[in-house]
Amino acid sequence: MAAQSALNAPPGWRTLEARGPQPYLRVMMDQAAKPGLDGVIAAAKQAPGRGLPPVHLWSPAHCGDIDIVIRKDGQWFHEGGLIGREALVRLFSTVLRKDPDGFHLVTPVEKLKITVEDAPFIATRVDRVGDALVFQTNVGDEVEAGPENGLRVEIDPVTGEPRPYLHVRRGLEALIARPVFYELVEMAQERQTPDGPVLGVPSNGAWFPVGPAGDHLS
User: Fold this and answer.
1) What does the pLDDT read at residue 9?
2) Cα Rg of the chain, angstroms
3) Domains along the chain?
4) Contacts of 3 (CB under 8 A, 6+ apart)
5) CB-based contacts of 35: which residues, under 8 Å, 6+ apart?
6) Cα 104 from Cα 66, distance rounded (Å)
7) Mean pLDDT confidence for 146-168
8) 172-190 pLDDT per residue, tens
9) How many CB atoms are closer than 10 A to CB 124?
């Protein structure tokens, strides 16, 4: 099956991977004429470098489901097996789209629904660069928090712990890893609001609350 061929690659691919990313990606491109995951790979490679394919402009007629799960920790699984190739996960992430009926991998001819347990990405790093908070995600995105890419914090109804999120693009969010959230809390400043004093962080002219003033994370 095409879906299996993309993930269970022949032994020769290991040699190509050892030579660097370009030969590896050329082999993936050789599969572009096939449907399913190989078609997804081909669509992702239409964009140069870390550019993003215009998935918001694609309206494929064919829709289906594929057994891919993005787990809460950001790892991608296909048919129960971990997709261990970082380059492949990054390619898939560039053609991920959130629609009203869920998350899909999208090409010009197909829309394949997948399962996302929480947020599709994880924010693994934050840096203060001038007036901006710049985040890195586990799939290689660099995102500046601001009016277009906001931060929000939910409280887990079971554990009572904060679950912070960063908007990445077009409704796709990254769960902010706990160590990164700790850094945000350390940067936070107190501000008076109608609900009382709140800790928050500024970025690109916007201000984002991260928790009550005096609150301590365990």
Assistant:
1) 41
2) 19
3) 2-116 (3.10.540.10), 121-211 (2.30.270.10)
4) 36, 37, 66, 78, 79
5) 2, 109, 110
6) 9
7) 94
8) 999 999 999 999 999 999 9
9) 16
